[in-house]
Each structure stands twice: as C-alpha cells, then as structure tokens.
C-alpha cells in the first residue's frame, strides 16, 4: 500500500502547485491593467484625491507581492475581500450561489452518470451495429450543440408549449426538496444531455479498448459465457477508465454550468461571474475564477487518484 | 385513428417488411425499432408526436439525399485520386462537407446574398416574416435572414482566425519541443499544463474582464497581436536559423516587419475588441494543439529514417519540413477541425453572454441572446442562429470523424 500512498500524495502535491501557479496568474493578470484597479473603477475622469482615497481603501499603496500574499491568505480562509461595485463581501455574495451551482451540477450528475455508463457499455457491446452508428451521430450532434441551443429547445417545448416545467429556475429558501428538484429540472436536463453524450462516447471508447485486450479474448476462447466475461474479466479493469470519464465530465459540468445558468436565470456562481465580468468587478471575477479552477483541478485530481486506486496492478504490488 | 396515423404505420411496417424480405438486417432493425418506439410515443404524445417523428424522418431522408448527391457531385468534379478517397466518405461526412460549403458560400458572398444590410433597420421591432423578410425582424427591426448570412461571415471568420493563430503557435511549439527536447520541451510542457488546467470558458472570461474595457483600443490590440505573431515567428526563425548568426539577424528583421504588417492588416479587417477575442482564444487553445503535435511528432522523431537524416547532417528545419510534417499531416488536419469546433463554440458562447463580438456586428451567438425573449411567446426565431451554430459544428465534426477513421489511430 505504501506505493499507492506515495503516488497519491505526489499527485496531490502536484495539484496544489498547479493551483498556486493559477492563483498567481489570476492575481497578476489584473495587475496588467494600465494604472491599477482604482483607475479602472473610477475611469478617466477621476480626480487624484478620489484615486488616492480608493487606493488607500483597497490597499493598493502596498507592493504587488504583499497584496498577493494578503489576497492568497484571505482566499485560503474564504475571505475574498469586498466587491468594487456593491461593496459587499465577495464571500457572502458568492457563497450561497456556489452552493446552488454545486446542487445543480450534482443533480445533473446523479441523472447523467448511471444513464451514460449503462448506455456507453451497451453501445460498446453492440459496436458497429446500426444502433452504434445512430448513437454515434446522436451523441456527436449533442456535443456539437452549444448549451444554450439545447436549453432554449427544452424551454420552448417543455416549458412554453406544454407548460410541464417552469422556464425560469428561481429559487427561494422555503421550497421543499421535491419542489426544488422540479424547478431546476430543465437546467439539469440540459446539462445531462451535453454530459451524457460526452460520457457515453468516452465510456464506449474505454470499453472497446478493453475488449480488444488479449485476456478478454482468452476468456472468450475458454468458453466463458458473455455476461461472465463482462462482469468478471472486463469490469474490474474498466473501473479505472470509467472513474476517469466520470470525474473529467464532472469537471466539464462545473464549467458548462455557466451558460446554462444564464439561459435559465439560475442564481449560481456562473451567472455571478458573467455579471462581474461585464461590470469589471475584479475581486468577484478573481474569486469566481479561483473557485472554478480549484474545483476543476480537484476533480481532475480525483480522476487521477481514482484510477490509481482502482488499478489492480498497483493494488497488489508484486 | 386519423388517416395520417394509418398511413404512418402502414408505411413503417411495409418498409420494415420489405427490408426484412431483402435481407437488409440493419435497415430492418432500425425501421422496426422505430415502429415499436412509435407505439409508445403515439400512446403518450398522441398524433402530434407521430407527426414530429414523421417530419424528422423526412428531414433526415432529405439531408441524406442532399449529401448523397453532393458526394456524387464532388466525385464527378474531383481528380481521380481525390475521387477515390471521396468514395470512402460516409454520408455523414458528405453532409458535413455540404454544410461547410454552404456556410463558406454564404460568408464569402454575404453582401450579394443578403437582401438587406447588416445593421440596416428596415421595419418595426420583432415584425413577423413576410415576402420581404424571410425570417422576420429582430429586436431593432433588422432583417434576421440578412443578419444570419452576415453572421456566417463574421462569426466564422473570427473563429477561423483564432484557430489558425492557435494552431500555428501550438503546432510550431510542439514540433520544436519534439525535435529539441531538453529544458525547452519541459518548459513548454509545464506551461501548457498550467493553462490547460484552467477551464477554457473561465479563463476566457478572466482575460476578457481585463482586456475588455478601455484596453480594447487600436494601439493595445495592435501591440498584443504583434507580440503574439512575434512569439510564433520567433519559434519559426529559431527553427530555420539554428546557430547561424547571419540567419538570425535576417530572420529577426523580416519577423519584425511581418509582425507589424500583419498587425496592421488584421486591424483593417477586425475591430480591436475582436482582435482581443482572437488572441484570447489563441492563447487558450494553443496548448491543446501543442500537446497533440508534440505527441504525434514525438512518435515520428524516434523513427529510423529521422536518425538517418540526422546522421546525414540535415538541419532541424529540414527534419520538421520534410520528415516529420508529411508523416503527421492527417492527425494534425483532424485536430485543426476539432480545434475549430471548440473555438467556434467558445466564441459563440462568449457572444451569447454578451462578452464576445459586440453589436451592431451580426453574429450568431449574440443574435440568440438578442432575440431570446421571443422564446417565451413560443416563437422559434432565437433557435435559428443557435441551430446554425450547432449545424456547422456538427458538420465539421462529421468530416473530422471520417478523417480520423481513415488516418488510423482511432479505428475502433
């Protein structure tokens, strides 16, 4: 087990370093602005007194490195400073929204993961049949469509024309869980459509890759029934690629959520980011980007660690 | 039971019986499973659901016929070698080529095809379609059809420019990394790792928030663009010149001139905020191209004929141009198509968010956003530009799929 632990720790360390580098990029990119944030906020017509006052308030009179360390220390304790536009604490504004986004992503994942794995395995078993080809075209189409296209189609047919689901996913605190699921069904479904296609294709590729390996052929040749070949021989080795596929697509979900949130006016962190970008509210942009990047890296790490842990060769070292 | 339902089932069952009789197994399976699905659909959704299925099947048959005819047309006009290749193209790839061809024609001849100007207000807001306007008017009273045609030009040109720049930088860096190895390779690989570990849409939003406002002016975009071209060119110069000082001097002089001219040239085509967008896209996607090129070229570099060429004393540039590139064209072309899809979707998404191509320039992504309110009245107008985006991306993907299948590697 020592080997595995070492590998996992190494991966975690690598992820941490990448996250640190990204935090540097996110912070110092804003420094590229001519003048500084204060100038950008107040615009060209700002008086020197106003600028100096704002600089002092935002701590801009200190050197960049000090401010970076200060910002990083704040970020670690989930304190991202105050918004330029509203003056409210960034952590408070996006905290609840981040929870909403996570809920939406988890909702979509809970539907998409089982469906796509089952379908992916089925399509892999039926490869080169007419169903495989139809599934190939269908998933390719779904991947190629922008999220807002799928979202608006669902709104048009499931919300406007038939009135089965609400078109706008407005949330309130006193909603029951069932009501919550009902109200967020359409955005979740949009995400499911996109992610399922990705996952299906990746699962199919992984399984086909596996079925081509010699020990599967051996199992078939010795006369094992097909289900036994799949369950006993293929599946234990398929976990690693499948976990990889799931984690990678969850990472994709986290970013795909931005467009979907805007389409359905869902109060999530993606919409907060888009608003902040158009208002040039840098503390919020930085915080959102850092959160998104951290989640993305975390899920990629989970993929790596998962495939290490499920690798039979590593689990039973010689 | 209306006449339509009777005709529907008769046709489906008749066709599946015929397919079974003539031993067309896959066609029979498809038709008969469609019949079974129709039973369920008909019970749940009623006649209207069956009608939708029939319309979809009709559309599918129509596009199949168009793509078949288009493939035959291409075979007829192509040279013999090319025709042989084209014969192997599945219908989906032919369909993809047809769509790409149509969009290209629409984009190139936009002013001739579009009945009205790009930003010309001709009637009241959201006016319905009539003989003058095929698809009605948008929120300012501009003709949607004309804007769609112009959008083919603007959106695709932008995405293409972004893809080409990302591709040039990524491919050159990948080739150099594969041939040089050492710290240069390591440095580029780690840099691309970092860039790729930020989700692309998020990174784009971050960069646009910084370069979006006052910075999107002529001077800044010119310098940024020239700098980007300069970095790409520097890779090229270093590959060609290697250790000859004279070649370096000449190369750098030429490079400065070319970069400046290219910057000026691009500024006459695109406005500053669009150039920023192109650069953002190029920065985000070049690491992906780099990764692939490095992997593909890395496989070629270890071949014996490269070793032989090295022993002959060939230069690095010769190796890249005459040995590595010809042996890695197919995956690189396929990668170009895939990158184009990603770039196109990213730009469309950004425009949809109101952060990409700025009005009044016609663009498919922002057209969806501008007309989105119509959706709540059950009008499909906003779906048309969105469908155009999806259609073009699907088309490119179909063609890429065929190329990947042909060029080995992915023959699963």
UniProtKB/TrEMBL annotation, chain A:
UniProt GO BP: transmembrane transport
Classification via Gene3D superfamilies: MetI-like
TM regions (residue ranges): 12-30, 102-125, 137-160, 180-200, 242-264, 284-309
Domain spans labelled ABC transmembrane type-1: 98-303
Bilayer topology term: Multi-pass membrane protein
Pfam family, one: BPD_transp_1
A cellular-component GO term for this protein: plasma membrane
Subcellular compartments: Cell membrane
Membership in a protein family: Belongs to the binding-protein-dependent transport system permease family.
Keywords: Cell membrane, Membrane, Transmembrane, Transmembrane helix, Transport
UniProt-recorded name of the protein: ABC-type dipeptide/oligopeptide/nickel transport system, permease component
Superkingdom classification of source: Bacteria
TrEMBL record, chain B:
CDD domains recorded: TM_PBP2
InterPro entries in UniProt: BP-dependent_transpt_permease (IPR050366), MetI-like (IPR000515), MetI-like_sf (IPR035906)
Keywords attached to this entry: Cell membrane, Membrane, Transmembrane, Transmembrane helix, Transport
Gene Ontology terms describing biological process: transmembrane transport
Pfam family, one: BPD_transp_1
Predominant cellular place of this UniProt entry's protein: membrane
GO CC, one annotated term: plasma membrane
Membrane topology, from the record: Multi-pass membrane protein
Ranges annotated as spanning the membrane: 6-22, 27-46, 52-70, 91-114, 156-175, 187-210, 222-241, 248-269, 275-293, 332-357, 383-405
Subcellular location: Cell membrane
Organism superkingdom: Bacteria
Domain called ABC transmembrane type-1: residue spans: 152-404
Similarity-based family: Belongs to the binding-protein-dependent transport system permease family.
Protein's UniProt name: ABC-type dipeptide/oligopeptide/nickel transport system, permease component
């Amino acid at each position: 087990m020592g080997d595995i632990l070492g590998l996992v720790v190494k991966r975690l360390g690598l992820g941490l370093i990448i996250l640190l580098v990204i935090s540097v990029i996110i912070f110092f990119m804003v420094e590229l602005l001519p003048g500084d944030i204060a100038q950008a906020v107040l615009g060209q017509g700002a008086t020197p007194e106003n600028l100096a006052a704002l600089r002092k308030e935002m701590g801009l009179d200190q050197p960049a490195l000090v401010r970076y360390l200060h910002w990083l220390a704040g970020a670690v304790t989930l304190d991202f400073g105050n918004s330029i536009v509203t003056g409210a604490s960034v952590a408070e504004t996006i905290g609840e929204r981040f929870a909403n986004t996570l809920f939406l992503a988890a909702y979509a994942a809970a539907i998409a993961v089982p469906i796509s794995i089952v379908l992916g395995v089925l399509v892999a078993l039926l490869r080169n049949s007419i169903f495989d080809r139809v599934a190939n075209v269908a998933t390719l189409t779904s991947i190629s469509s922008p999220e807002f296209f799928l979202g608006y189609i669902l709104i048009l047919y499931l919300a406007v024309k038939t009135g089965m689901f609400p078109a706008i996913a407005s949330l309130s605190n006193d909603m029951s869980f069932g009501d919550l699921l009902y109200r967020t069904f359409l955005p979740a479904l949009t995400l499911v459509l996109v992610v399922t296609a990705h996952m299906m294709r990746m699962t199919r590729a992984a399984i086909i890759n596996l079925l081509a390996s010699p020990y599967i052929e051996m199992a078939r040749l010795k006369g094992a029934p097909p289900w036994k070949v799949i369950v006993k021989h293929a599946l234990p080795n398929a976990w690693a690629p499948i976990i990889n596929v799931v984690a990678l697509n969850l990472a994709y979900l986290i970013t795909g959520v931005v467009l979907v949130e805007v389409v359905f006016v869902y109060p999530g962190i993606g919409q907060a980011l888009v608003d902040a970008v158009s208002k040039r509210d840098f503390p919020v942009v930085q915080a959102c980007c850092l959160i998104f990047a951290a989640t993305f890296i975390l899920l990629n790490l989970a993929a790596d660690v998962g495939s290490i842990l499920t690798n039979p060769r590593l689990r039973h070292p010689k | 039971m209306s006449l339509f339902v009777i005709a529907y089932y008769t046709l489906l069952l008749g066709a599946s019986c015929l397919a079974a009789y003539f031993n067309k197994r896959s066609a029979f399976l498809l038709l008969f499973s469609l019949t079974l699905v129709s039973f369920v659909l008909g019970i749940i959704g009623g006649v209207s659901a069956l009608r939708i299925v029939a319309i979809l099947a009709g559309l599918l048959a129509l596009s199949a016929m168009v793509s078949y005819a288009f493939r035959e047309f291409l075979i007829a006009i192509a040279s013999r070698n090319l025709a042989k290749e084209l014969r192997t193209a599945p219908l989906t790839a032919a369909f993809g080529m047809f769509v790409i061809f149509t969009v290209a024609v629409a984009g190139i001849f936009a002013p001739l095809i579009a009945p009205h100007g790009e930003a010309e207000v001709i009637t009241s807001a959201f006016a319905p379609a009539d003989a003058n306007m095929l698809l009605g008017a948008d929120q300012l009273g501009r003709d949607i059809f004309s804007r769609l045609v112009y959008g083919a030009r603007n959106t695709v040109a932008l995405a293409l420019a972004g893809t080409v720049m990302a591709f040039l930088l990524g491919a050159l860096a990948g080739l150099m990394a594969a041939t040089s190895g050492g710290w240069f390779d390591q440095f580029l690989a780690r840099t691309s790792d970092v860039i790729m570990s930020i989700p692309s849409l998020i990174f784009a939003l971050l960069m646009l928030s910084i370069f979006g406002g006052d910075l999107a002016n002529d001077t800044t975009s010119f310098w940024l663009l020239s700098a980007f071209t300069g970095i790409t060119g520097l890779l090229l110069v270093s590959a060609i010149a290697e250790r000859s000082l004279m070649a370096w001097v000449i190369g750098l002089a030429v490079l400065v001139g070319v970069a400046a001219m290219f910057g000026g040239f691009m500024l006459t085509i695109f406005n500053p905020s669009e150039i920023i967008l192109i650069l953002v896209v190029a920065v985000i996607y070049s690491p992906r191209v780099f990764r692939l090129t490095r992997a593909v070229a890395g496989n070629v570099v270890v071949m014996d004929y490269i070793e032989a060429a090295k022993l002959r004393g060939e230069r690095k540039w010769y190796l890249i141009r005459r040995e590595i590139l010809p042996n890695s064209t197919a995956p690189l072309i396929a990668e170009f198509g895939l990158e184009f899809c990603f770039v196109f979707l990213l730009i469309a998404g950004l425009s949809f968010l109101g952060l990409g191509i700025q009005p009044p320039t016609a663009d498919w992504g922002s057209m969806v956003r501008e007309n989105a309110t119509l959706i709540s009245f059950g009008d499909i107008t906003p779906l048309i530009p969105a469908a155009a985006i999806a259609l073009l991306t699907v088309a490119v993907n179909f063609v890429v799929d065929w190329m990947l299948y042909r060029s080995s590697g992915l023959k699963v």
